[in-house]
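User: Could you check the structure of this?
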Amino acid sequence: MSLTGGNRNDVTQLLPLLDKIPAVAGLVGRPRRRPDMLFADRGYDHDKYRRLLRQRGIRPVIAERGQPHGTGLGTFRWVVERTISWLHGFRRLRIRWERRDDIHEAFLGLAVCLITHRHVQRLC
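Assistant: Sure, the predicted structure tokens are below.
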């Protein structure tokens, strides 16, 4: 993950994010290094990014600008919004006070561990 300024467009980090996806173990054979498809909102609707995704073997599922809502992408987006909401439950992450990236990432890692621990406790 790379940290950027708060006023930068998310689309500038699309390809670096895809490059940092770790190998996913599972089935026998070579581990997967990329997703089959990528869901994105209207902010990523540009032919350049669709083309770059297809070149990487990823099928883009991107909402189109100017089209009415109701494409069904909102059900996937809700998962992301919910997760960000969980992270905002930690006051230290709600507003970034840390100047150093490594300290901010450490607090982010701790928050993810605590969120995971809470969910595992509910299952037991």
